[in-house]
Amino acid sequence: MATKQKIQNAYIDYILTEGNKPISVFAFAKKNKFAEEEFYQYFGSFEAIEAGVWADFFSTTIKEIQNQEVWTTYSVREKALSFFYTFFELLKKQRSFVTYSMSHLKKGLHTPVALKEAKEIFEEFSVQLIQEGLESNEINDRKFISDRYKDALWMQVAFLLNFWIKDRSKGFEKTDEAIEKGVNVTFDLFQRTPIDNLLDYGKFLAQNAGFKMPF
Amino acid sequence: MKEQNSIPASKVARSAKFVGTGFKIGGNYIKHYSKKIFNPDLTRDELNEDNAADIYDSLSQLKGSALKVAQMLSMDKNILPKAYVDKFSLSQYNAPPLSGPLIVQTFRKNFGKTPDKIFDQFDLKSTNAASIGQVHKAELNGEKLAVKIQYPGVGDSISSDLKLVKPFAFRLLGMSEKELDIYMKEVEERLIEETDYELEVENSLKISKACADLPNIVFPKYYKELSGPRIITMSWLEGMHLKEFLQTNPTQELRNKIGQALWDFYNFQQHELRAVHADPHPGNFLITPDGKLGIIDFGCIKELPDDFYYPFFSTTSTDLLANKEETIKAFRALEMILPKDNEQQIEFYYQNYKEMITLFAEPYMSGEFDFSKDEFFNALYGFGEQISKMPEFKQARGVKHFIYVNRTNFGLYNILHELKAKVKTDTYRPHIKTKF
User: Fold this and answer.
1) Is B326:B320 a contact under the CB 8 Å cutoff?
2) What are the backbone dihedrals phi and psi of residue B130, each rounded to the nearest 5 degrees, phi first?
3) How far is B23 from chain A, CA to nearest CA, in Å?
4) CA–CA min distance A170, chain B (Å)
5) Which of B7, B101, B116 shows the shortest C-beta gap to A181?
6) Quick one: CA dihedral A93, A95, A98, A100, positive or negative?
7) ipTM for the complex?
8) Cβ distance of A73 and B124 shorter than 8 Å
9) B7 — contact with chain A (CB < 8 Å)?
10) pTM for this model (two decimals)
């Protein structure tokens, strides 16, 4: 009897040694000695396996960091940092798969199929973080823009993934730096900045001082 | 202390930081001169203080090498106006810390475990910032520990950081480009050594063992198994930094004791070990509650090769200086006099270097020396100033070892001066050769 985990492992093993997807589910099942229908009990297609692996990366990371003792003491910014560090630590164990999967992603405006499920998990996580940040005032609430904060964090994921794939430094130290700096900048932008104050001031003048632009 | 919100990301961002400082300093001048309109008595002190604060702010946000340069600049009091110095001295033990998750991550990379799994207790908020890392308090089996953690990527950013500091230091110090290059190269080499924490643990163990018998000196215990390429674990030393110590108005006796310990520590290394802790800035020392000197940082060790040691330290003895011919030979060996110099130049450099070294060696000449004497330091700085104005000295001379050794010894003199200590200088004497 094939289990979900077994099929996943056999599939990863196959693509990493062959460099390609199996020709068909039939061939794949035959090679691994289980019935084709068992495959469909768990996955609709090969893409679904990959998507599952990615989703696991994210959910495992989130579970792990939330179980750390320090988690509750972290600020939102630190929670995000903690996510990224742990995430890439986890990916290290499966770097070949990540490299393979990333290079087979279809580039385009839409989130690739393999990452769709993962993105949902991450978004749920980031919405929680942002909500927490808004409540603690660590993050500034901006009309219309606040809803897009989660996209900024997802962009961070995409950027760092690409950075990590190309990172040749010892122990991926450069990626650590990229995380520390990148996440900090992102959260700096989420915070109240001088631009917010400037806009606020402009609004105040427009409403109260009978202030008219001379042009 | 407030945690640092952002580290300027790329070289561009770092440059922007310096540009920002430039603007601010400009602003400070405007502030100064507009105030001066109303109050003509205003001195430049306030202006200098404003500038120093801004320079410090911007340097400490850059961390790493730039901060190190700030530290080095603050060592030499005669170069910078007092206000700059006071602010820069801050950088010796006060810089904003880095994020908690990164510390956890560094531990995981070095040991495969988070700090709370390794120690019974680990404080994620750092207590001190070392210039290329930070120090955390921890506890294991009832012992208090200090854990030094290095910021990732420091090693890689050294060169580009220094290039950024260069024009800035250039204007601040008014040095010739060539001199500055040697200086910068020295900093670079030292910094790269300093980022090697495994080497530092080796050095610490070696030197603290060799110096174990020196009186009134304590070293922390180093834990090799809890240290790695980016982490050093050592026992926690209680104590005050020099500035805090001086604020407690210590007795002359205590000052002398600390000063003597410092003198013995340095001269034992220079003359017996021939390798010296080459970073005598006040942040590396602690004065313990029982009045001993704690030494907490072995980032940079300078080895003194024989072909430098003998010519240089022999010139601190009157036996050699009395013999002009041999002295010139020693100066040649040190490249203070170059092969292409003509008769006149040889005489000129001989006279000036002789005067300089005689001044430098004054503490060695008698068995005891009182470092509280301003005359000695004024003479030293005065001579330095005079020399810096001579066109003959625009060109850098002397072998590269000088830079380390001068820094070490002038740093030592400076600290002893601040301590106002009277020190027995014949405890560990230089080994002398009179023939070259």
Assistant:
1) yes
2) -85, 160
3) 18
4) 10
5) B7
6) negative
7) 0.70
8) yes
9) yes
10) 0.68
What is d(CA A3, CA B296) in angstroms, rounded to the nearest whole number? Answer: 57
Q: Is B104 on the interface with A (CB under 8 A)?
A: yes
Backbone angles phi, psi at A27, to 5 degrees: -60, -40
Are residues A177 and B6, on separate chains, in Cβ contact within 8 Å?
Answer: no
Cα(B316)–Cα(B309) distance, integer angstroms: 11
Beta-carbon contacts of residue B360 (< 8 Å; ≥ 6 apart)? B316, B380, B409
The C-alpha angle B347, B350, B356, rounded to 5 degrees, equals 140
Ordered by start, the domain boundaries in chain A are 1-44, 51-203
**Most distant CA atoms of chain B, gap in Å:** 70
Within 10 angstroms of residue B160's Cβ, the number of other Cβ atoms is: 13
Distance CA B404, CA B309 (A): 12
- Total Cβ atoms within 10 A of residue B329: 16
| Cβ–Cβ gap A82/B101 under 8 Å | yes
pLDDT in tens, A69-95: 888 888 999 999 999 999 999 999 899
Among B229, B177, B173, B174, residue whose Cα is nearest residue B201 = B229
Tell me the angle at which helices A46-67 and A113-135 cross, rounded to the nearest 10 degrees.
Answer: 20
Nearest alpha carbon to residue B195 among B232, B145, B234, B241: B232
Residues in B 128-157 with any Cβ partner in A closer than 8 A: 152-153, 156
Q: What percent of chain B has pLDDT over 90?
A: 21
Q: B9 and A181 in contact (C-beta within 8 Å)?
A: yes
List, for residues A5-60, the tens digit of each pLDDT value.
889 889 999 998 988 889 999 999 998 888 888 899 889 898 899 999 999 999 99
According to DSSP, residue B96 is labeled -
A-B C-beta contacts closer than 8 Å: 64
B61 alpha carbon, distance to own chain's centre: 20
